[in-house]
Amino acid sequence: MARHIELERKYDAEPDLALPDLRSVAGCARVGAPETRILRASYFDTEDLRLASRGITLRRREGGGDEGWHLKLPIAEHTKREIRTPLDAGVRDVPAELAAFVAAHVRGRPLVPVAELETRRTERGLLAEDGKVLAELADDTVSARRLSRDGHEVALMSWREIEVEAVHGSGELLERIGGHLRESGARESTAASKLQRTLEEDIVPVERSTATRTAGDVLVTYVGVQFEQLLDYDPLVRLAENDDDSVHKMRVAVRRLRSILRTHKRVVDQVRTRTLDTELKWLADALGEVRDLEVQNARFHRRLADLPGAHQGPAWLLAMADEEHRARDQVRETLLTQRYYDLLDALDAFLATPPLTPRAGRKAEKEMPKLVTRAWRKMMSRHERAMRLPAGQDRDAAMHGTRKAAKRARYTAEAAAASLGSPAAKLARRAERLQEVLGDHHDSVVAVQRLAGIIERPDTPAADIFVAGRLSEVERREGARALDGLPAAAKKAAKRKPLRELEKK
Q1: N or C: which end of the chain has fewer CB within 10 A?
Q2: Is the domain of 356 the same as that of 375?
Q3: How far apart are the C-alpha atoms of 131 and 128, rounded to whole Å?
Q4: Mean pLDDT, the chain, as a whole number?
């Protein structure tokens, strides 16, 4: 399975349009000889075009230098993540490894052929002085067939399209090339892909609310943003073999969803969201097992690198790496379960018909300050309670509780910032700082606990016990050092000015 990031621009062109001399493009020294190929592709989707509605394309293409199965996931405008498998990975059925990457959208529905395209492509390389290929220009004449549910043709269309894809060049180079094409009469394409143009009349793009007028608007908009984040990171979690931050970011999106539903409990019907909260916790816990191992593994490797003469590969650390790989496999299995699909369906249903209470109709500028203030007071109350405890396990647990409260306050303020502006954004940053300080401390506490378990195991070799003991000393010092920043973070969080600004709204 191969993968890469695709950066390209697409242009529509009349059949008689003559290509400009692209040697005049800054950075392009010469244009390679044209090569013409015939490409035939079958595109797969659900019957209701769930992939196309999100700009995702899944195809099997014959012909050309990159023939095979291609999955393209949008990252940003003009940019896609492409994942490829060989042509023989499947003929009529989508290869399971590619189907898994779109499972969060498909959710058990069959993937069927929805279009067939034949493209006569004339390709030219755009080269630098040293012969390096900066970009490839593809001049395509396309014949497309839209298919019915029984696989028969229902429409035939054709057009000419010019694609410019970066190889070793930049987005700025593509824009300069595009300027020359536009001057020659080409038009920037309004369709992100050939499939989108083929199915344009049938595609219903996914749209999320951006309203912030009422408290309910703020909640629904924030839930929509976090749900999209969850879906965006789903395939990256499936791809990841080590810590690339995708598990962390997907878990944060899930936690934000759960947190906002809790802090806005007066705005939503609790009976209808109780199960949703339970299922979000289940998913967060599944992701959390991987994330915790990621953090601890990376932490111990860094610490060992800083310990002169320490054995760099104790058996218990190698065992942790194996444990993390097993946890990743388990998460991938979790993301293929019906329970996960049901959770995603429940979030879709929540956004389609939000179970709002009458209080949700109140103006955001009146209601949101109350929600932010309530979350803020809980955070500060927990901090004060923790600081009254003597050093030890109870205080560590109380500080971890403060950290959780800081997250809730932060997420509530982040959601409110869309309608309340700077004061809410300022509070979110202060809560984030408090959360970070307490998070660093908590990571040390967890590390010490894990190392204590290793030391206490009767089968741990003496040399490994020695390494774990040295690391424990380091972690205790680092945990204490992390708390050096707590007074300043708490003092800043306790300042009343941003809250007073909110209350004036």
Answers
A1: N
A2: no
A3: 5
A4: 93
